[in-house]
Amino acid sequence: MMQDLFDDIREEMAGRDFDSIDDANEFLQNFMEGRNREPVQGFLGLSPEQMHRILHSPYDGTSDILEFNTELSPDAFQAIPVVVHVQVFLKALAAHEPVRATKKGNMALAFSRELAGKMYDGAKYPWFRKIRSEEEGGVILSLRHILTMCGWMKKRKGVFSLTKKGREIVDEGFGSAHYLTLLKIFTIEFNWAFQDGFSDFYIVQQSFLFSLYVCKKKAMAYVDGRVIADCLIDAYPQVLEEVYETYMPAREIAGYCIELRVLERFGVYFGFLVDKREKQENTYRKRIYVKTTDFFRRYISWHVA
Question: Ramachandran region of residue 197, left (φ > 0), alpha (ψ -120 to 50) or beta?
Fold first, then answer.
């Protein structure tokens, strides 16, 4: 890409005479600004300038690209998996607070087991009722950190309890403002790598808005999750340089990470996608297929094609 850029610069400058270095620099600056505003195929029609803002100012500098509908009624959020889990967690804490922490600083085992029983279908996930610590409780540990970051619960002197804002959610319900807070905390402050054993792959998290744009372009009907993963890898090939495992090709490992973090633990969990699984021949893995939801279309207004 850099070689192509240099070739284009040489072609544009061929035969031009500049009166000074400043004139040449001004020409190059105007050329680069124009180039940065041009759509790029690897970015599915977005420009480098738009991609820069998507990565570095996802909530403050992208109003010309997309907007979140913060006027949806509370009913629009109630079936979203993460919202269900948040309300289960906060209501359980309200019923039992103060909940004492273990010596390791985790939630008490009895409380963690109660949460697991309420969050997970006992017939489908019977082992969650027999967890030996909060750390074995699926999303419970992550959710506890996220709720603390949101300012809805706290730990003081070895005791977990609700904050004033958390109590308001329990008493008055979960609405649009709470969802936006949860979304910002999950995408900006919480570390997605905390939940799995893959490399950091921070660009995977940082590009969450681009991931949603890819889903808009590719997943209006069910599509193989690897299609989404390939689009992200093609846009950010540097992600392959972070793969340290050698038991399979780097692109395949990065693809599995994207399917897990972006599609399952972000897209589906936050209500933007629904998924279905299909067993693969000669392997224990199941392929994930995703498509966008009605909530995706109602919550996000896109200003780009």
Answer: alpha
Cβ-Cβ contacts under 8 Å for 60 (sequence gap 6 or more) = none
Q: What is the 3-state secondary structure (H, E, C) of 193-257?
A: HHHCCCCCCHHHHHCHHHHHHHHHHHCCCCEEHHHHHHHHHHHCHHHHHHCCCCCCCHHHHHHHH
3-state secondary structure 242-283: HCCCCCCCHHHHHHHHHHHHHHHHHHHCCCCEEEEEEECCCC
207-232 pLDDT, tens per residue?
A: 999 999 999 999 999 999 999 999 99
| Confidence at 41, pLDDT banded by 50, 70, 90 | confident
Structure tokens at 232: 């992200």
Q: Could you tell me the CA-to-CA distances from 77 to 73, 118, 174, 178, 255 in Å, in that order? A: 8, 19, 8, 10, 29
Rg (C-alpha) for the chain, rounded Å, is 23
CA distance 38 to 240: 26
- At the topology level, CATH places domain 74-188 in Arc Repressor Mutant, subunit A (1.10.10)
The answer to whether 304 touches 66, Cβ cutoff 8 Å, is yes
Domain locations along the chain: 2-68, 74-188, 198-302
Count other C-beta atoms under 10 Å from residue 299's C-beta. Answer: 24
pLDDT digits (tens, 9 = 90+) for 5-40: 566 667 666 667 777 777 767 667 766 666 666 777
Angle at 270 (CA atoms; ends 51, 186), nearest 5 degrees: 65
Q: Is 198-302 the same fold as 74-188? A: yes
User: What distance in Å separates the CA atoms of residue 239 and residue 229, rounded to the nearest whole number?
Assistant: 11
What count of other Cβ atoms lies within 10 Å of the Cβ of residue 295?
A: 19
Per-residue tokens: 139: 């999303």
The answer to whether domain 198-302 has CATH 2.40.50 is: no
Higher pLDDT, 116 or 2: 116
The answer to whether residue 296 scores a pLDDT higher than 60 is: yes
